[in-house]
Please model this.
Amino acid sequence: MANSKFEYVKEFETDDRLPPSNWIVVRIDGCHFHHFVLKETSQFYQRRASKILSLTVSYFTAVYVMKWKEFFPHKDLKRPPFFDGRVVCYPRAKIIRDYLSWRQVDSGHINNQYNTCFWMLVKSGKTEREAQEMLKGMLSKDKNELLFQQFGANYDKLPAMFRKGSCVYRDKVEETVKFDLTGNPVKRIRKKVVLGHFDIVGPNFWREHPEILEED
Model:
């Protein structure tokens, strides 16, 4: 017999704690994929999958609605957005690195290159079906050639945000916190949120930012 409403509800909750020493990826499905990565040492919501997923999706949905007018000032949000998601565990840092690299290529570069070609063709007078047929089975280098030859567009010079997507992470940076009596800067290592459009495919990004995959 439960002694309180809290204990009564808790009896119906499943123990879905994720295994320790695993990286946690919250994948949110929408018109594009969004990923939130928690380190293997994270104790966020006691590593309970249902709680992590519920909170992350709810927060993402709320921010999506609040930021709508900022990005689309002349368009109304016709209906409340709906996002689904799931939680996936990865046991090693190299696997999470390879996964994120693959997602950047698949959902970033490949999808955007296709969409760029598709809408260029539609704007030039092709029907959507005709554009789809033209692009069916076309290789990446051929899409680049199509953009350059027919529309004078160099895909590699498009803004990095469209080719690579956005990445937000916490990095250790050296900052000046004050000056001593002689005027020399006093610096400390602090964690800072970094937003950018980086190429995370290959070893260079990870070599330059090893702190991302290090344990806290």
